[in-house]
From TrEMBL:
Record family assignment: Belongs to the LytR/CpsA/Psr (LCP) family.
Protein keywords: Membrane, Transmembrane, Transmembrane helix
Species this protein is from: Rothia koreensis
Location of region: Disordered: 22-41, 466-493
The name this protein goes by in its record: LytR family transcriptional regulator
One Pfam family cited in the UniProt record for this chain: LytR_cpsA_psr
């Protein structure tokens, strides 16, 4: 006679074997946490999930209650030390956050942080595998084994994997900081302010060298973070230089070699013909632009940041592309070759409507000159930059961090010292408490012809007043529309407001008009645009 089948788990009837070091009736023998055989299938399942949760929340506690207590004590000590360090860093952030930023961004400390994170990730993973050993999946009911194993894998991936990925991000960011920023001592504020020049450069195949299409001086209060931007038109004539500038000997009366000697032509001029004036500089053209900005504004320019439009295509590809509402048909190609003077062919068009642009098409959308005014072209560039800023969300950054980091190193060039980063980030956080004050040598502050026939003494005096008034939060008053050339102004190819957001110097956003077209919150009035220049960010 055969025994009928039963759903009863035979392992439930197995009694624990007494160890050599255990007395009969020892609590260890009957404690289901330390001896899963002493409990039923439901108890073993609850025990499995409890041990996994303990290892997730308090690493080492599972070993303390169900395994090797020595290992558990060591792991718990490490866990408590990590928690104490995090609390200490949070308290330090509240008291002096620059110290915390310097710890994270410093070359040596960031390397130590990478090593510590890797060690913690490995240690946490080993604790999880030890927890799996303590669970003893073979004793679980068959239906629960897959669920517990899947839970183990998910929690291992989220915890130890997350810490390991953090080490990877810190290491990539460490390389990016070293690749972008310069070496050298920290800068000290001059008259209580940091002053640096932001340039947006373009070096297309049809151009003679790289030229900065926009130049903006940032002046930041070293204590409060209050930032003032001063836009310098690219077509400014007769740029001035201080007597201690190497360019004083070449252009003692200013950069006045004719109509072609506008401000943005100084960069390729020095890079090609006068690089010997700056023998210790990696970028003589940028140094020359700093000297020109200093002579024009009267502010001591301590460093520069150059954003290369040509590298934007790589960054946009690294982001996975950008979305833009295109207002009018924009040619790919066209215009004239500056080297040959011949007409460039048109290879296609970017059509109106919502478009997802890869790096190649986004670059052409911002660069195309065919059938467009400077206002149209520069407005399109602002749309590209705004789209990048909007779509560079945390998910994109985390999943494409290495590609974005590598592309960023090709786009941004600066002589800001690496060890200055912590103080600048701290200033950027302070700056969010203030409105960004904007000014420039163009309408609505000066007549439209002022950059062609500038009065530099008048301009420098006005800059001094704007800087002085900024301490009280005062913004400069624009001239009447008739006096300032009808309110038109060249639109910066790198919008100062957008770049201020990237640099952390403003949290102002951009508004849209009734038609959905992006409007900068810049106090300068927008120039009239054709369909070629109208666009918005969806």
């Amino acid at each position: 006679m055969t025994t009928p089948p039963s759903n009863h788990d035979p392992s439930d009837d197995i009694e624990a074997a007494r160890g050599l070091d255990e007395r009969a009736g020892s609590s260890r023998m009957t404690d289901p946490l330390r001896n899963p055989r002493s409990g039923g299938s439901v108890t073993r399942t609850k025990r499995a999930w409890l041990l996994l949760i303990l290892t997730t929340v308090i690493p080492g506690s599972a070993q303390l209650v169900a395994g090797n207590r020595k290992v558990g004590r060591v792991a718990l000590t490490v866990t408590l030390c990590v928690w104490a360090l995090i609390v200490l860093l949070l308290l330090t952030w509240l008291v002096h956050r620059a110290w915390v930023i310097e710890l994270v961004t410093g070359r040596f400390i960031s390397l130590v942080l990478v090593i510590v994170l890797i060690a913690l990730a490995i240690f946490w993973a080993l604790l999880f595998f030890d927890t799996l050993r303590l669970i003893r999946p073979v004793l679980l009911a068959k239906g629960m084994r897959p669920a517990v194993i899947i839970g183990f894998v998910v929690l291992l991936f989220v915890t130890a994997g997350g810490v390991g990925y953090s080490a990877y991000l810190v290491n990539v960011g460490r390389g990016a900081v070293s690749g972008i920023f310069a070496q050298g001592p920290k800068m000290k504020p001059v008259d209580g302010r940091y002053n640096f020049l932001l340039m947006g450069g373009d070096a297309g195949d049809d151009r003679v060298g790289r030229r900065p299409d926009s130049m903006t001086v940032f002046s930041v209060d070293a204590k409060t973070g209050q930032a003032v931007t001063i836009s310098l038109p690219r077509n400014m004539q007769n740029a001035q230089f201080a007597k201690d500038s190497p360019l004083w000997d070449v252009y003692p009366d200013g950069y006045n070699c004719g109509d072609e000697c506008i401000l943005n032509a100084l960069y390729p001029d020095v890079a090609n013909d006068h690089k010997d004036l700056y023998p210790h500089s990696k970028d003589p053209g940028a140094e020359a632009m700093k000297d020109a900005a200093e002579g024009i504004t009267g502010l001591p320019i301590q460093s520069y940041v150059l954003v290369d439009m040509d590298g934007f295509s790589k960054l946009i590809d690294a982001m996975g592309g950008i979305d833009i509402n295109v207002g009018g048909r924009v040619p790919i190609g066209g215009g004239h070759d500056e080297m040959t003077g011949e007409q460039n062919p048109i290879d296609g068009y970017i059509e109106p409507g919502k478009q997802h642009l890869d790096g190649f098409h986004a670059l052409w959308y911002g660069r195309s000159r065919e059938g467009a005014s400077d206002y149209d072209r520069e407005a399109r560039q602002r749309c590209v930059q705004s789209a990048m800023l909007k779509q560079l969300d945390p998910q994109t950054v985390l999943t494409r961090f290495q590609d974005i980091s590598e592309a960023g190193q090709k786009i941004i060039e600066t002589d800001i010292p690496e060890n200055q980063l912590s103080s600048f980030v701290d200033l950027g956080l302070k700056a969010k408490d203030h409105d960004l004050i904007q000014y420039g040598m163009a309408p609505p502050y000066f007549p439209e012809e002022f950059p062609t026939y500038p009065d530099y003494d008048e301009f420098r005096s006005s800059v001094d007043k704007v800087i002085s008034d900024s301490k009280d939060g005062k913004t400069p008053e624009p001239q009447a529309a008739g006096e300032a050339g009808g309110g038109k102004t060249p639109v910066a190819s790198v919008n100062p407001l957008v770049m201020a957001q990237v640099l952390g110097l403003s949290d102002q956003s951009q508004a849209t008009d009734d038609a959905g077209t992006t409007k900068s919150l810049d106090v300068q009035q927008a120039a009239e645009l054709t369909e070629n220049g109208t666009c918005s960010v969806p």
